[in-house]
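[User] I wish I could look at a protein chain and see how it folds. I have put the entry right below:
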Amino acid sequence: MADIVLSELVKEYPGGVRALDALDLTIEDGEFFALLGPSGCGKTTLLRSIAGLETVTSGRIEIGGKDVTALQPGARDLAMVFQDYALFPHMTVRDNIAYPLKIKKVAKAERHGTADTTAEGLSLGGLLDRRPGQLSGGQQQRAALARAVASRPRVLLLDEPLSNLDARLRLEARTFLKRLQRELAVTTVFVTHDQAEALAMSDRMAVMEAGRIRQVGTPSAVFHRPASTFVASFIGSTPTNLIDAVVDRDTLTVAGVSMPLPADVRGQVRGGEQLVFAVRPEYLSLHAEARPTGLPGTVAVVENMGVSSLVSLDVAGSIVQVTVPEGAEPEPGAAGWAVPDPARVLLYRRSDGQLVGSPVQPGAPDPAGSAGSAGSADPAAGGTAVSAGR
């Protein structure tokens, strides 16, 4: 077992700056878990704290049921791949891969044999006598991964290992990393600021902000039912449209348009209450003629995204973005009506930015089928976030 349990974790820097704020989280054995959030949210500090490279101010870190809070990094049976790979430039690829085994005083013949076998599995067999400076970015990444997995750690920590690769290599590396993690069945924690990477690779993910975890769940659950306006605006390749709205009995007024109030929020809001109407660009359709529930506007910008286009519609001074299929792009300046899919509309309270409706209740199974624990539930985050502060 190599599950990771974090309890009341605090990391405070001089001046009272809290990088981690009373954070609770459970990462299951064998899980590929992503830590996602904007720069400065605390995700790398959390990863380094698990590794033992940062000393936490208070709280407890357990790996496989063992308290490792006070243990040195080398005693935690884990490996870490850094953003810049941190390969030794004066060593060959073989010696880089074998280095952790050398530290463990494994005999030279055995560690070189392990290095060669690991390198072959990562298509590095013909590069073992080269030095890092003679490798491409993708080859350096694979060499760093080979070094990390050669000693068969119980936990693998990845700190934005794809950020130095070009777009094509990033896509290839995503598939490679996911397959490797599955084959090794190693508990993996992956830090990224790239939503696409987190959504594509992780079994579960945590979205962080200002040292706290705002939501934990499967990629599908977090994408389709964000717990707050912060998560909704952060997750996805295109931002969620967030528009001020007002409740009027069983209807909702959005940008001057009256729409039915979703059934799951009736009884939870009152007339006159101010909400935020949220819908992703993918769940809006654009029409050239007026529609009863269409948000009227003028096409401001059309961005080609390959097989689709992103249309920015000026609706009463606010920009609403709509994804349209290839060949259906309107002309800038044209009139348009953005019609939401009512089944995909989410509502948030404007007062605190929290989801209204039918959130996942504490202890209930993840709607997308996650079986893992996400820590203690936070009612303020719609029931899908963990308790991350006191």
Q: What stands out?
A: Residues 268 and 357 are 7 Å apart (CA to CA). The longest strand covers residues 17-27. Residues 167-184 form the longest helix (18 residues).
